[in-house]
């Protein structure tokens, strides 16, 4: 496998980070396998559901799919890991955007935290020392990306309040704190439908009937969990994502390359993959990519062919997938992920406040990028405030995505 040589093997002796026997270690790429038994022991000791992205096997699959590198920074006492932070490390272009328009960009190396927390006990001093160990890690990266961090979490408090962290990094909120929507799954689908109310239930049933009528070759709903389903599923996903607004406006396309297929097959083999496809006969209409772990179903990506926009295929597929989750392995949570879209609010019954942060290593290399991007971000916030004042932001967003201004999201 070819990778960009960002990381080099690290001396496993590590470096001391305190007077109580804690030693920091940095494992990269294949070295992580050496630490895997200790990482799994730490996960078991925390006595809480394991987030799928904290599993070392997930980190390997993600690094393989994206042809990037992986890193785990640990704090260890003797032969035991007491705290860990897993990352994907990759080249990244830091774009300063006004709306959807890029006005400047900078080549960076990004360390992207896997999950929305460290693998660590809820101990402020311990997590603070782990952040400082990451700062001193003998690898080249320019900034750390914390996506969807709960603002009530201990890690968010460490990053925002620790003067030691502030001396090592610049800390920027990528956007203002936003609502993270999710569903606390009731005991049955009937109970869920009662929770969302009669008007919403009837609206979704009507949209489903209308789409069924529009599908002249027969609407079909497919659950994707097995290895043998992966390659044909991703071929259909690529077709839809190339046509979707995400593909045409943002250039975000899910490719059905052999590397991506192999990575999804690995997830299927471990029981993590749970995705869905809606078709008219053999023609793909909409897809939903999701991952399921011990406690939650995580919605990763979804899109639909805009030719079907009038029939709300995205909402129909989401509604049918919720019903399917009650058929087997019903999770405790349905997590919509980041993004404050209207349809998430409509279908959720629980929420929390989240922040997405750039934690930037202080250097001459990062100073210009940091100054430019934070200035443009402040201008974006001012524009957003103005649009919100006149209740225009949702309407403009729908227009940019190809929706009529007075239509609800599809």
Separate helix tally? 14
Main sheet properties: 14 strands, mixed
Helix content: 40-55%
Sequence stretches where pLDDT stays below 50 over 5 or more residues? 1-13, 404-410
Number of strands: 14
N/C terminus separation? 40 Å
- In round numbers, the mean pLDDT is 89
- What is the level 1 CATH name of the largest domain? Alpha Beta
* Class from helix and strand fractions: alpha+beta
- Percentage of residues in strands: 25-35%
Number of domains: 2
Order of helices and strands: EEHHEEEHEHHEEHHEHHHEEEHEHEHH
What fold name stands as the CATH topology of the largest domain? Answer: Aminopeptidase
Could you please describe the fold and organization of this structure?
There is one protein chain. This protein is α+β, with helices and mostly antiparallel strands. It folds into 2 domains: 15-179 and 353-399, Aminopeptidase, CATH 3.40.630; 186-331, 3-Layer(aba) Sandwich (Aminopeptidase). The protein has 14 helices and 14 strands. Strands 1, 2, 3, 4, 5, 6, 7, 8, 9, 10, 11, 12, 13 and 14 form a 14-stranded mixed sheet that branches. The longest helix is centred in the C-terminal third of the chain and has 26 residues, at 364-389. The protein is globular, with a radius of gyration of 22 Å.
């Amino acid at each position: 496998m070819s990778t960009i040589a960002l990381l080099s093997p690290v001396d496993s002796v590590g470096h001391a980070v305190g007077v109580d026997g804690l030693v920091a270690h940095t494992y990269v790429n294949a070295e992580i396998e050496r630490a895997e038994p200790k990482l799994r022991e730490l996960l078991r000791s925390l006595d809480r559901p394991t987030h799928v992205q904290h599993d070392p096997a997930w980190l390997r699959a993600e690094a393989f799919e994206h042809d990037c590198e992986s890193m785990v920074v640990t704090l260890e006492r003797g032969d035991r890991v007491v705290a860990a932070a897993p990352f994907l490390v990759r080249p990244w272009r830091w774009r300063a955007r006004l709306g959807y328009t890029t006005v400047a960009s900078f080549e960076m190396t990004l360390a992207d935290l896997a999950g929305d927390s460290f693998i660590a006990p809820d101990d402020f001093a311990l997590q603070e020392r782990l952040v400082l160990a990451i700062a001193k890690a003998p690898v080249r990266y320019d900034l750390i990306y914390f996506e969807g961090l709960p603002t009530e979490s201990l890690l968010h408090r460490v990053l925002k309040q620790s003067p030691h962290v502030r001396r090592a990094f610049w800390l920027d909120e990528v956007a203002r704190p936003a609502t993270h929507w999710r569903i606390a799954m009731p005991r049955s689908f009937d109970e869920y439908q009662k929770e969302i109310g009669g008007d919403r239930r009837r609206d979704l049933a009507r949209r489903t009937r209308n789409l069924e009528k529009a599908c002249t070759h027969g609407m079909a709903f497919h659950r994707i969990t097995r290895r043998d389903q992966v390659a044909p599923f991703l071929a259909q996903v690529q077709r839809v994502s190339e046509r979707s607004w995400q593909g045409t406006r943002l250039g975000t396309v899910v490719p059905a390359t052999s590397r991506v297929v192999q990575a999804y097959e690995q997830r299927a083999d471990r029981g993590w993959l749970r995705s869905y496809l809606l078709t008219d006969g053999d023609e793909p209409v909409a897809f939903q990519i999701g991952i399921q772990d011990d406690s939650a179903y995580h919605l990763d990506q979804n899109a639909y062919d805009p030719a079907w926009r009038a029939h709300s295929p995205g909402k129909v597929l989401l509604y049918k997938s919720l019903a399917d989750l009650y058929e087997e392995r019903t999770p405790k949570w349905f997590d919509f992920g980041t993004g404050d879209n209207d349809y998430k609010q409509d279908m959720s019954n629980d929420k929390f406040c989240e922040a997405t942060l750039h934690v930037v290593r202080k250097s001459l290399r990062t100073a210009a990028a940091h100054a430019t991007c934070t200035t443009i971000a402040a201008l974006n916030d001012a524009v957003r405030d103005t649009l919100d004042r006149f209740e225009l932001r949702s309407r403009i967003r729908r227009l940019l995505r190809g929706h009529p201004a007075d239509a609800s999201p599809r």
